[in-house]
């Protein structure tokens, strides 16, 4: 399978899951460590719009700021560093992630907005959790005034302002709740 190369100045949805759907984040410390590795390996190579770390998978929405091969290698280094630490801590061996991380190039602003909401609503969609209090997504980072490397201003600009950002997320959340009630 030929994977699409990452291209500088383009936006991508990057995601992967544990091999065979296995858990890749067993503890909060695992997720915190993964976020530190993101900062270590990608902070100068990519700009993040959104992220979400679930127990068995993750999503990133980012803009590639460096040569695509450099960012691909940085992502590989991130995943390898995390897998080695996770395996050592849990006494497991072998691959942690599915073979290659998936990537979808985003060229449409409407889809970009929908994807941000989709990523933030992952806790609701997968575990019927309150996405507004989920600690390992960028939803609250976007709404916060705290310093961040996330491109908060551009994300909010995509939605018009903070209030519309919250409104769109809540509207999609309400649709999900309605779907769960019907099932």
TrEMBL record:
<dbReference type="GO" id="GO:0006313">
    <property type="term" value="P:DNA transposition"/>
</dbReference>
<dbReference type="GO" id="GO:0004803">
    <property type="term" value="F:transposase activity"/>
</dbReference>
<dbReference type="Pfam" id="PF01797">
    <property type="entry name" value="Y1_Tnp"/>
</dbReference>
<dbReference type="GO" id="GO:0003677">
    <property type="term" value="F:DNA binding"/>
</dbReference>
<dbReference type="InterPro" id="IPR036515">
    <property type="entry name" value="Transposase_17_sf"/>
</dbReference>
<feature type="domain" description="Transposase IS200-like">
    <location>
        <begin position="7"/>
        <end position="122"/>
    </location>
</feature>
<dbReference type="InterPro" id="IPR002686">
    <property type="entry name" value="Transposase_17"/>
</dbReference>
<protein>
    <recommendedName>
        <fullName>Transposase IS200-like domain-containing protein</fullName>
    </recommendedName>
</protein>
